[in-house]
Specification:
- The protein is mainly α and 54 residues long.
- It has a domain of 32 residues.
- The chain is 57% helix and 0% strand.
- It contains two helices and no strands.
- The longest helix is centred in the C-terminal third of the chain and has 24 residues.
- The radius of gyration is 23 Å and the shape is elongated.
Length: 54
């Protein structure tokens, strides 16, 4: 199968190499928080359109 055609790694990457490749999640966290707020506001607006009084 195609899995056997992949070359074997000569050595496993060290901790220093993996630390350099790690991506920052700061922007992703901000994006997720912003989306959560947008969903909450949209839910409140939908309830208001349906006639619920807040």
């Amino acid at each position: 199968p195609w899995l056997t055609r992949r070359p074997k790694l000569a050595s496993t990457p060290s901790d220093e190499e993996t630390a350099e490749k790690k991506l920052s999640t700061k922007k992703l966290r901000r994006f997720v928080i912003r989306r959560r707020w947008q969903k909450a506001v949209n839910a409140l607006l939908a309830l208001k359109r349906m006639g619920m009084t807040l």
